Write the structure tokens for this entry.
Amino acid sequence: MTKIATWNVNSLRVRLPQVLDWVSSYQPDILALQETKLQDENFPVADIKTAGYEVIYSGQKTYNGVAILCRVSAGINAVDIVKDLPGLEDSQRRVLFATYDKLRVLNVYVPNGESVESDKFQYKLTWLKKLTAYVKQQLKLYPHLVILGDFNIAPEPRDVHDPEAWQGQVLFSEPEHAALKTLLETGLCDTFRLFDQQEKQYSWWDYRMLAFRRNRGLRIDHILASNALGGLCTSCKIDKEPRRRERPSDHAPVIAEFKL
DNA sequence: ATGTCTCAGGGACTGAGA
């Protein structure tokens, strides 16, 4: 059984204790992190190694930053590491791709977009187009591919606490839905929707307005699997527990298990 | 009621980004 997880930690400097605590209890085989907000020279390699994980990372000052942890006892090295989205000139550290044994892992921190009127929204759509082109090519090379991270898109009305209010807003707009649909149509499935789930399951809640306490959230963090890998998925869940703790990230981890 | 959190710059608070 292989456990694969994703978590936007909103600063690994702040969240390192929570992350170490969480990996020690869940023991994921692979954990993709987003918004580490750390330059590579400041990355806490030693603490993560002590916790029993190998790690690769790609960061920058203040914003963005991604990392992938792999449990040492899995005995696998990351190879074919990619830190830039092919075809996109971009200094923002938002992607980290690596192969672990036969599994291709694409960790993504999709641009937020700010608002549908913003230039950043166009950047988000361009970014997703480049990602889709890359995934299409990668699926030919790797039957077992997982793309996971903070997509900053809630796919359906049931993934939004108040779909009427959010309709047309950034994170839940038509162009974003079209972009996500095109990505999925390359041959991916949303592992969360392979299974019966309770209603009102979200992965992100605004820090403001008591959003978590009221469960006013969105499901914007996803684990998407190639169809072949999706066939091996046995569960996908959102773990709200770390969001209840002291000094939480605004996101909760998402975890999927595979017969690998 | 955009009500929180994080970071950087610069040495208290403000602005950016989410």
Q: What stands out?
A: Helices of chain A lie at 12-26, 45-50, 119-141, 163-166, 174-184, 227-230, 241-244. Residues 10-11, 13-14, 35, 37, 61-63, 112, 114, 120, 152, 206-211, 247, 249-250 of chain A lie near DNA strand B (CB under 10 Å from a C1'). The first helix of chain A runs from residue 12 to 26. DSSP finds seven helices and 14 strands in chain A.
